[in-house]
Design goal:
With 99 residues, this protein is α+β, with helices and mostly antiparallel strands. The chain is built from 2 helices and 6 strands. The protein has a 6-stranded antiparallel β-sheet with strand order 2-3-4-5-1-6, covered by helices on one side. β4 and β5 form a beta hairpin.
Length: 99
Amino acid sequence: METRLKSSATIPTTEAQRYMVQLCKHFGHKVPATFEGQEGRITFEMGEAAMRASPETLMIISQAADPEGLGRLEQVMASHLKRFAFREPDLAVDWRRGV
């Protein structure tokens, strides 16, 4: 079985559902992406991002085969989320590795 590296971020926002759907629709034009209810998943070449939206937070769990892929996945997800959340300039995505 392939070893997977993981990281997670829990982002405080009342717009979690909207951002999750936006991320899935945006990336869904280029890579496999699905969302249903409060959960979404995007599969990139370098790894996979799973999301769960709640009324006050968006949780993202990223998985990749190597540290470089995980870092790239974290960067891509955070940068696009911040772009979509331009009305929340203080929105922060703090990744925790191994969680």
